[in-house]
Design a protein that fits this description.
Elements: E1 2-3, E2 11-14, H1 21-31, H2 39-48, E3 54-58, E4 61-69, E5 77-85, H3 94-103, E6 113-118, H4 123-135, E7 139-146, E8 159-165
Parallel strand pairs: 5-6
Antiparallel strand pairs: 1-2, 2-3, 3-4, 4-5, 6-8, 7-8
Helix pairs in contact: 1-2, 3-4
The protein binds (2~{S})-4-acetamido-2-azanyl-butanoic acid.
Organism: Polycladomyces subterraneus
InterPro entries: Acyl_CoA_acyltransferase, Ectoine_EctA, GNAT_dom
Keywords: Acyltransferase, Transferase
Length: 171
């Protein structure tokens, strides 16, 4: 899928490959707000979870990334782990485009809910998910998922679950 951006440089949305692992790790690190997981974890996601992950590529650079999976105990839900958008792409709808590309995948067929956790200070991510729910004319319920005290060192905010759905499929 090609997306025209304000700069008219095509942004291509595609499944990640293991060769994208380090670029994704750098993109997540450079956001300055996401938890930077091990480089290994991004290689693992690209290898085993590529059906429910998506990257945005522009001029050979990874400028956007969403990792997700369908929890084994709740296959009707797509759990979105991380959404990362490069500084250069902020404000042009790339995050929402990545989510919409993902939810349209065959691997997400019959998904009824999308869930993600967002920290209280991450207002842009909160706006992204609330806007996504609005675009699908469905609900967005917020509840506590991981209280701050569950994280070591006392430096991590709580994580709130944004549960979007149900998605109304055309029968
Ligand atoms: C949707 C999203 O990016 N959530 C982030 C969860 C967590 N703080 C992380 O960075 O993995």
């Amino acid at each position: 899928m090609n997306l025209e951006t304000g700069l008219m440089n095509k942004v291509v949305l595609r499944q990640p490959q293991v060769a994208d692992g380090t670029s994704i790790w750098r993109l997540v690190r450079d956001t300055g707000v996401l938890d930077v997981n091990s480089p290994y974890s991004y290689l693992m996601l690209c290898k085993f979870f590529s059906d429910t992950c998506v990257v945005a590529e522009q001029d050979g650079q990874i400028v956007g990334y969403v990792s997700a999976f369908r929890p084994p105990a709740d296959q009707q839900t797509l759990f979105v782990w991380q959404v990362a958008v490069a500084e250069s792409q902020r404000g042009n709808g790339l995050g929402k485009a990545l989510l919409k590309a993902l939810i349209r995948r065959e691997a997400c067929k019959n998904v009824c809910y999308l869930e993600a956790t967002v920290s209280p200070s991450n207002l842009s991510s909160q706006a992204l998910f609330r806007g996504f729910a609005r675009d699908f004319s469905t609900d967005c319920e917020v509840s506590e998922c991981f209280p701050a005290h569950l994280f070591p060192g006392g430096t991590h905010e709580s994580e709130m679950t944004f549960r979007i759905g149900p998605f109304h499929y055309q029968t």
